[in-house]
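To: structure subgroup
Subject: Chain for Friday's discussion

All,

I'm putting the inputs and outputs inline so they're searchable in the archive.
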Amino acid sequence: MIGGWQVATIGDWRGGFWRSVATSRYQFGNPRLGPDQRLEMDIFGSRQRLWFAGDFNPLAASNVTGGDLLALVPAEPAQRVVHQMGPDCSGNYTNRVCVELANGSFRNTPIGDLYNYSPRAGIIGPGSWNVDLAVYKSFNIKERVTVRFTADFFNAFNHPNDVDPTSTSGLQNLAFQNNEPRILQFSLRVDW
């Protein structure tokens, strides 16, 4: 029972996917953050990590750990690195601009298909890794009968892989994982 076991494994490591800021937002600088700048916070009903300096109201966040959130994402939309164009006639940033008409009235005019000069795919998302493992042994029951027992462990270490951040806010929801849970599979194979 003790000797004769065999182990097989396969694993993969993935660098992150290249990401873009949402096409409804414009970049007025570099939104990328280094690993030491990625703050964690409670916002929008869950624990989230700031992956890049996106467009959201930082005053809605609580329990911020790791640094100064307002230094990375200012409360004033016009001061953020990533935000919509504007302001409109109400002073909001809605990808509309306030245009004075010939009769002296004002109208919110959609920017429409204005070329978004923001760099595409300039942010790399989180990487991930996984290891699958198999343990097996063959037992001779009779001269012509062999039984092989196999135990397969998919996601053997049950390692969590983070989800990609949203393309608007730059927040990564830490309540979710991007991988399957650990799965164990046992099998018996009889050869005669």
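Points worth raising on Friday:
The first helix runs from residue 69 to 72.
The chain has one domain: 11-191.

D.
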